[in-house]
Design goal:
Blueprint (H helix, E strand, L loop, with lengths): L12 E7 L9 E7 L4 E10 L10 E10 L6 E7 L11 E4 L5 E3 L4 E9 L8 E9 L1
Antiparallel strand pairs: 1-9, 2-8, 3-6, 3-7, 3-9, 4-5, 4-8
């Protein structure tokens, strides 16, 4: 039995996070998008923009998924997507993370979406983030 009975049912569960828009001049920032409610496996992380984003090579943004660990102080990058020329972000969204072997985490582990500024940056619309996980 898990630490929380809501997660005793087998199968995939999901959590959503809504991130505010980012101005081109805003610095790199980390947004916690998930805190594991139980020991679980992270199966997929999807990013969905409020509007399409066109990538650029010199002044842009990188989207980095960071495993901050159970204490919130970790910095292990587990996935990334660079919004460079030809790598935009359509309104259908982007699967940022979907490993063949899901990442096992303990209760309290945090995942953050780091929105990294490159050069003078580019503006981003609000982003939705969906994290799919299954309890151990």
């Amino acid at each position: 039995m898990s630490q929380r009975q809501a997660y005793d049912a087998p199968g995939t569960h999901d959590r959503q996070a809504a991130l505010p828009p980012v101005a081109a001049a805003d610095p790199t920032a980390d947004f916690v998008v998930f805190e594991a409610p139980v020991n679980c496996r992270i199966e997929k992380v999807k990013v969905i923009p409020g509007a399409a984003v066109t990538g650029a090579d010199t002044n842009t943004r990188h989207l980095n998924l960071v495993n901050r660990g159970a204490n919130g102080a970790g910095a292990a990058e587990v996935a990334n997507y660079d919004l460079t020329s030809g790598n935009g972000l359509g309104v259908a969204g982007l699967v940022l993370y979907a490993p063949a072997v899901p990442l096992a985490v303990v209760q309290g582990t945090q995942l953050a979406l780091q929105i990294e500024k490159v050069g003078t940056g580019i503006a981003l619309p609000p982003l939705g983030v969906v994290v799919e996980f299954s309890p151990n």
